[in-house]
Amino acid sequence: MPRLPPTLFWQARRLISPLAPLILPVCRDLETTSNELRWIRDHVKSHPSPIPSKLRIWQLVDKRSNGTPLQYVLGTQPFGSLEILCRKGVLIPRHCTESYTLYLSTLISSSSPSPIKVLDLCTGTGCIPLLLTFLLPSATATAIDTSPISISLAKQNFLHNFSSLPPSSNMTFTQNDIFSPLSLPSSPDILTANPPYISSSLFQSTQTTRSVRHFEPKLALVPGDHLKQKAIEYNCRLEDVFYARILEIAREIAAKRVLLEVAGWEQAVRVVEMIEGKEYGTVGIWKDEVYGATHIVEETQIGRRKIKVIGEGEARAVYLSRI
Amino acid sequence: MLAASWVCRSCARSVGRAGFSSTFLRRASTAKPALNLPPALFERARILAAEHDQLSAKLADDFDAKLGERLGEISRVAVAFKQYEKAKAALSELEGLLKSNDPEMRELAQEDMKDTHTQLADSSRELSVALTPKHPFADMPCLIEVVPGPGGTEGRYFADTVFKMYQLYCENKGFRSRIIKYESSDSIGSKGSEGEIALQEAVLEVMDVGSYAHFRGEAGMHRVQRVPATETKGRTHTSAVAVWVLPAFPEESTSSAESQWDNPESDFYIDPKEVKSEKMRASGAGGQHVNKTESAIRLTHIPTGITVSMQDSRSQHTNRENAWKLLRSRIAQKRREEREDVARQLRSSVLAQSQLTRGDKIRTYNYGQDRCTDHRAGVDFHNLPDVLRGGPTLAKVIEAAQAHFTERDIQALIADEEAAATAAAGKSKNGK
């Protein structure tokens, strides 16, 4: 990371607030600093407490200044029209995940009118199935994660966002390892997953930012060494092992559509090459910014498949559909 | 006569003032002119009233949604026309009575005469208002955009004051409003004399249907004359704030073509291909590798070069939706203005001079004199603190501006009708 010039600190102090120089090293520029400080102030204002608000602001700024992600500091992250609770030990929902989930919901709502079944693997905070059930009110969803912290947080998120509704049975959360034998709902309309996909070498490099490396759970980011044997069985790289397993599950339960988040173009190509058989007639690659950029479409060919590439930015998700 | 033989001058003055409210109106230039409806307009009203009767008779038998809609459109004209006819009939009856031989009768008629005249004037005004074509955006919610004019921080502080004024006004009036954008300029820490911040740009959405018609007259340059907090020598400064009122696309979509933004016919329609969307900072691998808090969105409409940027919310989704909303409103307003410009050039009358363009100042807030002046209506209001608090005085200012707009629309309509009538007359003469 390049060194910040001292003038920037003076400016932050003079133009924004005496607190600004504290979080400038993690925010890196004045605009982000002033935004984050404003969001911290808004958070304190909207959550009344007997503790004086100046002290609370200082506490939050102090927490943020050691590099803790703002989402863990404030405890939430907006996701579509939902507010997702975030806690240490569970991956924070990303903007690109939000973008492709929104686009997916428009795709589904325009094509299938009947109640749909959603299955989400490696759910984390539960953001994907929660937003889908919110946008498609007739949907039922099943969410699975291997971490008990994730599952309890996902349940909390359900109550947090759907508290007006009775605790209905249209969402179920199960703690399970997807490499163990599973009992899953058959033929879901959509199977989504945001599995760990960072290779251990990339995780050590500067490509992965410090705040992610130090504060977010490695379990949700990098496939663990205990899966090396599985990778050899599936004959794939360790970082792709989750995709091999999920595609196997998709084939077993005959999922109608599959959406997998990937790290970039190379991994997207490897995932497309992993697809066996001819069940999935449509294969697409969605980029970072897909919702609202659906008119940017390119066609390419990978192997014998014709691929539609939608959106702009880095390649972010692989979409398979039987229809 | 006064009981006292003399009265001290200042006491006499205070007696004179007792009846005056604090809002002293200078109405000299805005006295309602006597209205003479041109015969062509009158004829049109007659036809519409006849159609109204016919339609209501038809609808009594069986209901038809389309006919019902048409009936609603013209009912105001029909009602006003009937009232006008009634007043006219009453007037002629009274005139008959005036000629009668009974002196008592004549006296009574004379008394009634005045009332009937005002009734006639009112109903003819109402009729002309009803005949004025409604502004196509009149039924829409609106966005009020406040941007400081060129100049120092003083204008920016006042921009914040103006923004707060409209916000409070909405609260007082019971309009549902929402801040879409509230961006301060670089010197965020510094505060004005009354705790206002240096505003860069702010947008307030008023969600009530029909608020566009309500706030339409607020658009233009608002000028402030006061001694800024930073001034050491006590000099009064003049700075300006621009306020734009844009039509907003209503959230509960209705069926009319104007309010459906995905309809290419609508003013609100934007082809997504013509918009370049960029997240302000794109960098690195993205995905799980980074955890960005930046949620800023910038949209550029390529054909017109209009740019909208939004970074208020932590949610990128909210920022994107608000940015699209603002972009759509700006483009709809621009299209409308272009069309109005064309129409204005066709209308070669005195009215062309009274039309204000975007750059003209419409209002002055003078702190030293405790005065708020609307330059179009030519009205002064005092009690400036109440105006800036969005209180009843501001309501009066807005009403005055609205009255001015209605007046102008009527004048335009009459001028158009007269022009059309003379053109038609000229044609028929040539025909002979």
From TrEMBL, chain A:
GO cellular component, one term: mitochondrion
A Pfam family of this chain: MTS
Ranges for domain Methyltransferase small: 104-201
UniProt entry tagged with the keyword Methyltransferase: yes
Entry keywords, A to Z: Methyltransferase, S-adenosyl-L-methionine, Transferase
Species of origin: Podospora fimiseda
GO biological process: methylation
InterPro entries: HemK-like, N5-glutamine_MTase, SAM-dependent_MTases_sf, Small_mtfrase_dom
UniProt GO molecular function: protein methyltransferase activity
Enzyme type, top EC level: transferase
Protein name per its UniProtKB record: peptide chain release factor N(5)-glutamine methyltransferase
Transmembrane regions listed in the UniProt entry: none
Enzyme Commission number, as recorded: 2.1.1.297
SUPFAM superfamilies on file: S-adenosyl-L-methionine-dependent methyltransferases (SSF53335)
TrEMBL record, chain B:
Swiss-Prot/TrEMBL GO biological process terms: mitochondrial translation
Keyword annotations of the record: Methylation, Protein biosynthesis
Domain of life the protein comes from: Eukaryota
Protein name, UniProt field: Peptide chain release factor 1, mitochondrial
Protein's UniProt keywords contain Nucleotide-binding: no
Molecular function, one GO term: translation release factor activity
Cellular component per GO, a single term: mitochondrion
Residue ranges annotated for the Prokaryotic-type class I peptide chain release factors domain, each copy included: 281-297
Pfam families: PCRF, RF-1
Keyword Protein biosynthesis in annotation: yes
InterPro entries: PCRF, Pep_chain_release_fac_I, Pep_chain_release_fac_I_sf, Prokaryotic/Mito_RF
PANTHER family, A to Z: LD18447P
Similarity comment text for this entry: Belongs to the prokaryotic/mitochondrial release factor family.
Entry-linked Gene3D superfamilies: 3.30.160.20, 3.30.70.1660, 6.10.140.1950
Phylogenetic lineage: Eukaryota, Fungi, Dikarya, Ascomycota, Pezizomycotina
